[in-house]
Amino acid sequence: MNYFYTFTGTLNTYRWNTTGITILSSSQVAFVAGIFFDSNDTMYVADETDQVVWKLLKNTTTPIVVTGQLASGGSGASQLNGPQDAYIDSNNNMYVSDLYNERVQKFVNGSTIGVTFAGLNSSSGSALNQLYYPRHLTVDPQQAYMYIVDYGNNRVMRYPTNSTTGTNGTIVAGGAGAGNTNTQLNSPWGIYYLPTISNYLYIVNYGGHSVMQWIPGASSGQFIAGTPGVSGSTATTLNNPIAIQLDSFLNMFVAEFSNNRIQMFCQNNQTGITIVGNGTAGSSATQLYGPRGLAFDSSMNLPFIHGKVSHNERIQLLQNFQRNPKINTIFLSKVGDTSFDLPEANVVIQISSDGGSRRQEAQRLGRILRIKKGYTYKMLTHTQIITNENQLYFSTNEEQRELLEQSPRTPNNDEALPITTKKNFK
């Protein structure tokens, strides 16, 4: 069964709607091996049987072929043979893992003629310039390196993004043969890497029924889900995990091929919650049949700054939030007295704990959320702690006092959240 479903959930609580919506059916795609969303929420589907990559624009229903020759696999520059995954960079270059050609192809800015980026065409092996059944791939945020799951060699390879055929890669995880120790990978398949969220590579061991986190280049990793080498269908076991994603809260999502489900693991928790599928293979809207791919659109990749995020990472996340028009929401949690300018914001929701005095809470809110000079915007504010304007006192910062004095205050969570227009600060 080759259906593509979309499931929606409520952020933070993850009360997922377990009834899926069919986006593409088996009459449109033959065998979905991997999926990818670009920054415009355009979806790309690697179709292993049809030997192509499909492109589906947001809010449309008819996919188009963007690379490969439909139902005609081969090793030519315009052909694919068992495409597994696709990645599109910010310059509209497409990278495709080409399983049976033992290579990763690069298609420059919409071209249908590929050049071999990594591996040697139709030549499998374990040398540093060879691949053996490349599966999923990803690129770091700076687009300096690509990380490729080298399934047949039980390793993850890293290549500079200016690589060409024959370029040596670097082993950054595994490479010590197939196994279930913390120095080995076992038929690795899916991968996730986003340093702004975590410094680890997240790798699923299809044959090892486990998930590992691994610092790139380290001699060993750490098992974080599943029982290494043991398959199962309980909340703490996995059966052929095949794809993985993380959200900005470090919740982990794992697609299981043989359990026909998607499990969510909250941060630092090895007990999974089934959010999609019921464990039985099927084609109904509540079932999955051997899921292969897993991807989030932009609504599930919102920036999140919390107390453990380093200073440099905060700067990077804030700059991306301010510069990227596709990102319109940011989450802040446990950031203490750090100040954040929010230029041209439409809505700001202030939530503070009830610890400490009202004056301390007012000061904390005033420091965390402040208007950038020269901007006027509407602020949706709910401040439960501060209920009496006489309690607001800032002897050294007029702007902080004005910010809070102009904000409406509601004494409890049940009251409507009013809207007010803020003034420009001088």
UniProtKB/TrEMBL annotation:
<dbReference type="Pfam" id="PF16203">
    <property type="entry name" value="ERCC3_RAD25_C"/>
</dbReference>
<dbReference type="GO" id="GO:0005675">
    <property type="term" value="C:transcription factor TFIIH holo complex"/>
</dbReference>
<keyword id="KW-0378">Hydrolase</keyword>
<keyword id="KW-0347">Helicase</keyword>
<dbReference type="InterPro" id="IPR001258">
    <property type="entry name" value="NHL_repeat"/>
</dbReference>
<feature type="repeat" description="NHL">
    <location>
        <begin position="67"/>
        <end position="110"/>
    </location>
</feature>
<feature type="region of interest" description="Disordered">
    <location>
        <begin position="399"/>
        <end position="426"/>
    </location>
</feature>
<dbReference type="GO" id="GO:0005524">
    <property type="term" value="F:ATP binding"/>
</dbReference>
<keyword id="KW-0677">Repeat</keyword>
<dbReference type="InterPro" id="IPR027417">
    <property type="entry name" value="P-loop_NTPase"/>
</dbReference>
<dbReference type="GO" id="GO:0016787">
    <property type="term" value="F:hydrolase activity"/>
</dbReference>
<dbReference type="GO" id="GO:0006367">
    <property type="term" value="P:transcription initiation at RNA polymerase II promoter"/>
</dbReference>
<feature type="domain" description="Helicase C-terminal">
    <location>
        <begin position="245"/>
        <end position="415"/>
    </location>
</feature>
<keyword id="KW-0547">Nucleotide-binding</keyword>
<protein>
    <recommendedName>
        <fullName>Helicase C-terminal domain-containing protein</fullName>
    </recommendedName>
</protein>
<dbReference type="GO" id="GO:0000112">
    <property type="term" value="C:nucleotide-excision repair factor 3 complex"/>
</dbReference>
<keyword id="KW-0067">ATP-binding</keyword>
<dbReference type="InterPro" id="IPR001650">
    <property type="entry name" value="Helicase_C-like"/>
</dbReference>
<dbReference type="InterPro" id="IPR032438">
    <property type="entry name" value="ERCC3_RAD25_C"/>
</dbReference>
<dbReference type="GO" id="GO:0043138">
    <property type="term" value="F:3'-5' DNA helicase activity"/>
</dbReference>
<dbReference type="GO" id="GO:0097550">
    <property type="term" value="C:transcription preinitiation complex"/>
</dbReference>
<dbReference type="InterPro" id="IPR011042">
    <property type="entry name" value="6-blade_b-propeller_TolB-like"/>
</dbReference>
<dbReference type="InterPro" id="IPR050615">
    <property type="entry name" value="ATP-dep_DNA_Helicase"/>
</dbReference>
